[in-house]
Prior knowledge:
The chain is an alpha/beta fold. It is built from 18 helices and 18 strands. The strands form four sheets. Strands 6-5-4-7-3-8-9-10 form an eight-stranded mixed β-sheet, sandwiched between helices. A five-stranded mixed β-sheet has the order 14-15-18-16-17. The relative contact order is 0.14.
Amino acid sequence: MNLFKYHHHFRPQIHGRLLLNYFVGEGPSISSRIGSKQCFRNHSEDQDMTEFMEYLDSLKNYEKLGVPTGAGTDSEDGFDLGRMKRLMERLGNPQSKFKAIHIAGTKGKGSTAAFLSNILRAEGYSVGCYTSPHIETIRERISLGRSGEMVSGKALNFLFKRNKELLDQSVKLENGRISHFEVLTAMAFSLFAQENVDVAVIEAGLGGARDATNIICSSRLAAAVITSIGEEHMAALGGSLESIAMAKAGIIKHGCPTILGGPFIPNIECILRDKALSMSSPVVSASDPGNRSSIKGVSLLNGRLCQCCDLIIQTDNEFIELFDVNLRMLGRHQLQNAATATCVILTLRNLGWRISEASIRSGLEKTFLVGRSHFLSAKEAGILGLPGTAILLDGAHTKDSAKALVDTIQMSFPDAQLALVVAMASDKDHYGFATEFLQGGKLESIVLSEANIGGSKSRTTSAALLRDCWIQASNEMGIPTETSLLRAIKIAAEILKQRIDGRRGLVVVTGSLHAVSMVLSSLHS
């Protein structure tokens, strides 16, 4: 394919060493070919839950529409948690039938949930895990049992049909206000109860206090975990770091241990600790001075890139030293998530749970999440029409996660020249995101593109608008735009190939997990 066949739209500009093109593509974009329903159809088991998916699609979906101002705060503007409680009562309160670990935080929730689930499964526990968002199929959000397999389409659809009458009653009684996330959460909790899991690891969707997952009573909560506090969903969570901290602290329950990831700035940690104190909740912090973790190096292990780490973690009555742990989750931020998960496990051990050091090591080393520091194989790059190209996918979409990704790339590939492909949702800090890459990355080229968010264009940021933000961040740049994400990747790869003169190059696709989803879905289409 001639990447520059639309030559009348191609306007190269050079500022210093960075090649900046303006390219507006024509023809069908990948986003028009791969929406949410098409992604589902790529998985044969998803065809078994067509009725359930059509029902969910009929409900209000804030992932597509965006979250209203103040919706995650514990105020009159917040989501009505009473509505979720009434729905669960009609379903028999399944959340009262299993122990739960509840995780909130700006970043690191999903990774910490994955580390915890794999450690507990390695010990032999039957674990339910509920996370969001998904990459290719909504079934990814719910995993069950000792194997960690995602729920089958048949099981999810059967449960839906069995409860449809109650769901219909709830929608009617709540004047149509029941949401997509509330129904999905209710079905996940019902599955966990039905399968009699030993413990459920539950990631909060937005904030904590008014999130639909925050219906677990203190007698069933094994631990509350708050991973980090950062500037995301600011409007929905009150407009400040302090209000965000208060919203996320809403998952802390009376008498139940609270584990803090961090590190947090002092006033934010004070808010979290004060909330725990008011709830008589003992606090364990992964960032306490006595806890130490380090990355010793990055290398290939069995064909997979791993970072070799040491973790030394001490809680009130538990202590563990883990040396030469090979984490497939890359970056200092992932090491912190691993340390947070280990603190949770030691807290559970102190409560009488049986969890061996071998299981902790095994669970940490087994954990890998699609779309987080995710390198495509040579075969996958070939399917995209880019044989021999190194391609990294990462769903970073905040200023903090952009910094973490830059640090990870510098650690793993210190000499690599980068071609960046970016697509983002409309409610993100585009300027802050751009600043981190412009300050820290060895950028040869930037190509801006678009991705459907939650299967819809309503929260998509246009490539042209993204370009304006990057120009503002750089003060002088003209930046290329390409609405087709796949074509944007090919443009970036071609520019990199022409400019690196045999040096190591890396194409990085980032800005949204939805962009990652679109790339991975194209491998199966």
